[in-house]
Specification:
The structure holds 2 protein chains of 2 kinds. Chain A is an all-alpha fold. Chain A has 3 helices and no strands. The radius of gyration of chain A is 12 Å and the shape is flat. By secondary structure, chain B is α/β, with parallel strands linked by helices. Chain B has a 5-stranded antiparallel β-sheet with strand order 2-1-4-5-6, covered by helices on one side. In chain B, strands 7-11-12-3-13 form a 5-stranded parallel β-sheet, sandwiched between helices. A 3-stranded antiparallel β-sheet of chain B has the order 8-9-10, with helices on one face. Chain B is elongated, with a radius of gyration of 68 Å. About 2% of the residues of chain B have low confidence. The chains are: A mainly alpha, B alpha/beta. Chains A and B meet through helix 1, helix 2 and helix 3 of A and helix 4, helix 5 and helix 13 of B.
């Protein structure tokens, strides 16, 4: 985990950090698609 | 990650090569022996890239139409192979069993002759390079990619649906009414159509009758018109004067008598004119050419009977002219009357013939036309009603379909369900917004913190590469250029701070390497490919550079290409010697 990610971990809730980590681990060009998928997932639950 | 072995074919000057790699590998040799090609082959094998500004096809050996690189190594204690190849004018292809590969970009390739220019570019470029060195640039990109616009749009859409869902009972009532109206109107339309179909023969008969009656009426009207004309012509014939054949005969005789007298008078005039010519010819004529009597010198007296006859003729001609004149007008009137009579008689004949030809047909019964018209009027009313019902039924069908679609969309949801969706999306939106804001703040803090760490490491490293006194001290500072935080390097020379563009090339190399290695200590790259890094450094600088590289090799695999014997000796007891094949 990079220092930036470590700092983020302390500032965000565990759920938020989990989401942030998933975004950070995406290729940059796939981030918007990933966010849309998360939105679809949230709506369908 | 550690690379162990590389196989290369058709890459720049390397026809077919294999070389081993260690924590510190040094390729040593003269110019043109393939040192840089080995570094670039590793760069291509790992990333599929060539250095900026170089076309990949230019990397293919001039005697070959393809290049191939195979790398073997270990990642997370597991062996892996990575193969990459490319044919001229074709895209690269690759295959590997490497999983969770670290993100490696072209920045791992560092040319010594370029390093001195690291801080001579535009301010924005410096920022980019420094952020890249600090490992922060990808977080900048991530922060800019986090957007909640689509989620906000969907939330608005759901809010609209929520309102519709709340009105679902109204929609259901409207749908129910529209469906019942549709059934009623469809039945009504069926009845109208049935009646139209059932009475089709009756309507046809009524139409035929109406046409027949109208034609009969037309014929009767024509007969009446012709009979009126006949009556009028016959009345005209009665009052028309009768022609007089005696008058015409008498008039003919008068004309014949008149013409005979004219001819006789003309003859006598000619004779008398002959006898009257200067008296000379009279002596030459022995007898009268008319009566044969002997002509004497006083012949005029002897032919006096001609004069008397002439006078008598003239008198009679004059009387005839009066008679003829008086009878000519009566004769012309008689002729006109006869012509008109003949014309009226011919017209009467034609009219009577026409009347005989016109078929009178069966007589029209009183009320027959009205009955046919009433039937046809009923047919027209029913047809118009059927058309109106068609339009209303179609409209209702569309209405029912629209209500059903709307009801299908919202009828299955409850207000609470839609509200739950909105809540979840709102929570996701808020989380993303918080992540974005926090990431930007953290980046700023990380940059500031890392710069503090970088500063001390930078100063120490610089001193090891640069054991001289012209620059008493160096430092870095952040400057805002066009709204972006940029980093500028400064050195203390002669009691005042100078910028990198006021430093010598060697000083810039030392500054650049010091910053590069200091940054690498903060965020270690898995591998660095250094091409003649000693460029611009003197013996002391090379010594310091070797010390730093030997330190870094514990965290980063170092692969160095150099012509410098001193650097080679300091870095590796067993360098990979390169030579022209």
């Amino acid at each position: 985990m990079s220092k930036v990610e470590d700092m983020l971990r302390h500032k965000l809730s565990p759920e938020e950090f989990e989401l942030a980590k998933q975004i950070i681990d995406q290729p940059v060009f796939k981030i918007r698609i990933f966010i849309q998928e998360k939105a679809d997932e949230a709506e369908s639950k | 990650m550690k690379l162990n072995k590389v196989d290369v074919e058709g890459f720049r000057g390397l026809v077919k090569e294999q070389f081993q790699l260690d924590d510190m590998t040094v390729f040593h040799g003269e110019m043109g022996t393939g040192k840089t090609s080995r570094l670039l082959a590793i760069l291509y094998g790992l990333t599929g890239l060539a250095p900026s500004g170089v076309n990949l096809d230019e990397m293919i050996n001039v005697d070959s139409d393809h290049m191939w690189v195979k790398i073997e190594g270990n990642s997370n204690s597991k062996p892996f192979t990575l193969e990459r190849s490319k044919r001229l004018d074709r895209p690269s292809s690759s295959k590997t069993d490497l999983q969770d590969a670290p993100k490696i970009g072209e920045e791992i390739f560092i040319e010594g002759r370029e390093i001195s220019r690291l801080f001579l570019g535009a301010p924005t470029e410096k920022t980019f390079r420094i952020d890249a060195l600090l490992g922060l640039s990808k977080y900048n990109q991530i922060a800019s990619e986090i957007s909640t616009a689509q989620i906000e749009k969907r939330i608005e859409e759901l809010k609209r649906i929520q309102k519709d869902v709340a009105q679902a009972s109204t929609v259901k009532e409207k749908l129910s009414k529209a469906e019942s109206d549709l059934v009623r109107l469809t039945e009504e339309r069926s009845k109208v159509r049935e009646e139209l179909d059932r009475d089709a023969d009756r309507y046809q008969r009524a139409e035929d009758n109406k046409r027949r009656i109208e034609e009969q009426e037309k014929r009767n009207s024509e007969v009446r018109s012709k009979q009126t004309l006949i009556k009028s012509y016959e009345e005209q014939l009665i009052v028309l004067p009768q022609p007089s054949p005696e008058l015409e005969e008498n008039f003919g005789e008068l004309e014949k008598r008149y013409e005979a007298l004219q001819r006789r008078a003309t003859y006598i005039e000619a004779v008398m004119q002959t006898l009257d010519i200067d008296g000379k010819r009279i002596n030459e004529i022995a007898t009268c050419p008319v009566c044969g009597a002997l002509i004497s010198s006083n012949a005029l007296q002897k032919f006096q009977h001609h004069d008397e006859e002439y006078r008598h003729i003239i008198g009679e001609v004059t009387q005839l002219e009066v008679d003829i004149g008086s009878k000519r007008q009566a004769l012309e009137e008689s002729k006109r009357s006869r012509g008109k009579r003949e014309m009226l008689q011919a017209e009467l004949q034609r009219l009577k013939t026409d009347l005989n030809r016109i078929s009178t047909g069966s007589p029209v019964q009183p009320g027959e036309l009205k009955e046919a018209e009433d039937v046809l009027k009923r047919q027209e009313e029913l047809s118009r009603k059927a058309r109106e019902l068609d339009i209303r039924v179609r409209s209702l069908e569309e209405q029912v379909e629209a209500y059903r679609a709307l009801f299908n969309q919202i009828g299955r949801m409850t207000v609470a369900e839609v509200d739950a969706k909105i809540q979840k999306l709102t929570k996701l939106k808020e989380s993303l917004q918080k992540i974005k804001v926090t990431l930007v703040e953290t980046l700023s803090e990380a940059r500031s913190s890392q710069l503090d760490n970088l500063r001390s490491s930078f100063k120490t490293t610089f001193r090891r590469i640069y054991p001289y006194q012209r620059l008493k001290d160096i430092d870095i500072e952040t400057v805002s250029v066009r709204g972006r935080d940029t980093i500028q390097v400064k050195g203390l020379a002669g009691g005042r701070w100078i910028r990198s563009n006021q430093m010598s090339t060697g000083e810039n190399v030392a500054v650049s390497f010091a910053l590069l290695f200091a940054a690498n200590q903060l965020e270690a790259a898995p591998i660095l490919l250094l091409d003649e890094p000693e460029e611009g450094l003197d013996e002391n600088g090379v010594q310091g550079l070797a010390d730093i590289l030997n330190t870094l090799k514990t965290t980063t695999q170092m692969i160095v290409a150099t012509r410098n014997t001193q650097l080679t000796r300091l870095l590796s007891p067993e360098p990979e010697e390169t030579a022209v094949a």
